[in-house]
């Protein structure tokens, strides 16, 4: 009994330490965003600003086109999420319902493709977009985000499809419904929570992405929010810390809110494929 209690206390202590470790950067970012320059330069920093100010937020909007960059990020993230879900839904249905060598190979490729580093993909993607004349454009960036998020979207949706009882589709087939009608009228409504979770996950991935946007977007008018944040760092590597923290805090809020809404659904999608009916 003592051993069990001690183990449980140790688990909670480890969990608390991990939560503190995760929360520290964000809490320090919030603190920095509201500090005046005098406190930012202090040799004895404090957690809570002694004289909180909104000047860093005003300065951030004055120095960089944050609203335009946020609009570019929103368009890229929404476009990538919608297109990825539209493509992934029928593909995930086939992968989940039709077991065979081809689907097993496709599933293996989906898993392996997640291990590819960004640097390995950027050169062929750049050449393809150059031939299509989509360099330095939001539509070109959307195409890249769709390619990058599609494997994980397939994996998530395939798990949700496996969680839908096949007997419902068999009953629809007995009533004369074809494959497409069954997918649209029977399976898709049951997959709605999974589709929403997958779309939101693709949105978060595209919203936070930096490397592809940095390489493919050249003019400030087309750049996304993560790239614009680098403009707060001078040529000599000196950061305008207050405005940078304020802009980073605003850029982080949408992804935090979305992830808080879907984190249970993401976990359910990951685990659904491991449960057999």
TrEMBL record:
<keyword id="KW-1133">Transmembrane helix</keyword>
<comment type="similarity">
    <text>Belongs to the binding-protein-dependent transport system permease family.</text>
</comment>
<protein>
    <submittedName>
        <fullName>Carbohydrate ABC transporter permease</fullName>
    </submittedName>
</protein>
<dbReference type="InterPro" id="IPR035906">
    <property type="entry name" value="MetI-like_sf"/>
</dbReference>
<feature type="transmembrane region" description="Helical">
    <location>
        <begin position="141"/>
        <end position="161"/>
    </location>
</feature>
<feature type="domain" description="ABC transmembrane type-1">
    <location>
        <begin position="70"/>
        <end position="262"/>
    </location>
</feature>
<keyword id="KW-0472">Membrane</keyword>
<keyword id="KW-0813">Transport</keyword>
<keyword id="KW-1003">Cell membrane</keyword>
<feature type="transmembrane region" description="Helical">
    <location>
        <begin position="182"/>
        <end position="207"/>
    </location>
</feature>
<dbReference type="InterPro" id="IPR050901">
    <property type="entry name" value="BP-dep_ABC_trans_perm"/>
</dbReference>
<keyword id="KW-0812">Transmembrane</keyword>
<feature type="transmembrane region" description="Helical">
    <location>
        <begin position="244"/>
        <end position="262"/>
    </location>
</feature>
<dbReference type="InterPro" id="IPR000515">
    <property type="entry name" value="MetI-like"/>
</dbReference>
<feature type="transmembrane region" description="Helical">
    <location>
        <begin position="12"/>
        <end position="30"/>
    </location>
</feature>
<feature type="transmembrane region" description="Helical">
    <location>
        <begin position="108"/>
        <end position="129"/>
    </location>
</feature>
<dbReference type="Pfam" id="PF00528">
    <property type="entry name" value="BPD_transp_1"/>
</dbReference>
<feature type="transmembrane region" description="Helical">
    <location>
        <begin position="74"/>
        <end position="96"/>
    </location>
</feature>
């Amino acid at each position: 009994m003592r051993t069990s209690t001690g183990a449980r206390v140790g688990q909670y202590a480890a969990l608390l330490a991990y939560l503190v470790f995760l929360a520290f950067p964000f809490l320090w970012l919030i603190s920095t965003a509201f500090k005046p320059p005098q406190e930012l330069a202090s040799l004895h920093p404090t957690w809570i600003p002694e004289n909180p100010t909104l000047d860093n937020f005003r300065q951030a909007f004055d120095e960089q086109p944050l609203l335009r960059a946020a609009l570019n990020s929103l368009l890229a993230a929404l476009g990538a999420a919608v297109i990825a879900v539209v493509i992934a839904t029928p593909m995930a249905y086939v992968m989940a319902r039709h077991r065979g060598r081809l689907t097993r190979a496709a599933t293996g490729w989906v898993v392996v493709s997640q291990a590819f580093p960004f640097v390995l993909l950027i050169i062929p993607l750049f050449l393809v977009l150059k031939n299509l004349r989509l360099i330095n454009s939001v539509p070109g960036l959307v195409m890249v985000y769709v390619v990058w998020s599609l494997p994980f979207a397939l994996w998530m949706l395939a798990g949700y499809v496996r969680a839908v009882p096949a007997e419902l589709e068999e009953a629809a087939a007995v009533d004369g419904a074809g494959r497409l009608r069954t997918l649209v009228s029977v399976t898709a409504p049951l997959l709605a929570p999974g589709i929403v979770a997958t779309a939101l996950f693709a949105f978060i991935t595209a919203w936070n992405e930096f490397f592809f946007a940095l390489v493919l977007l050249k003019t400030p008018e087309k750049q996304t929010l993560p790239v614009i944040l680098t403009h707060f760092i001078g040529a000599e590597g000196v950061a305008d810390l207050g405005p940078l923290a304020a802009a980073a805090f605003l850029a982080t809020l949408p992804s935090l809110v979305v992830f808080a809404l879907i984190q249970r659904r993401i976990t359910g999608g990951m685990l659904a494929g491991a449960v057999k009916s």
